[in-house]
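Recall that a protein's primary structure is simply its ordered list of amino acids. Everything else, from secondary elements to tertiary packing, is in principle encoded there. The following example makes that idea concrete.
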Amino acid sequence: MFHVLRNEDGSIASLSRAERAGGELLGDDHPDIQAFLGRSAGSTGFNEADAEFVRVLEDLIDTLIIKNVIRHTDLPVAAQQKISKRKGLRNRMQGALNLLGGDQRII
């Protein structure tokens, strides 16, 4: 929940988690809060779909490499770096929380 102070035109002037004199209490998912934070109503669906699609692409690249269709070095250097960075992040996450199972594939 946010405590909201509004401008004369009704738009949000400021947000606070702490109680504010003259403030209005609104839920985190209120459209005015989302608009103030620069989030559109439909963007969350796209963000989730994009994150899921990135994982699909990672798995596809892994499969192509495992089946020797492509090599990691066939990719542009920038792509190699991004893939390695994501793999490193995922491996650290797996090691710390072990939530994702035993995916031991290495590029």
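The chain has a mean pLDDT of 81. Strands lie at 2-6, 12-16, 24-26.
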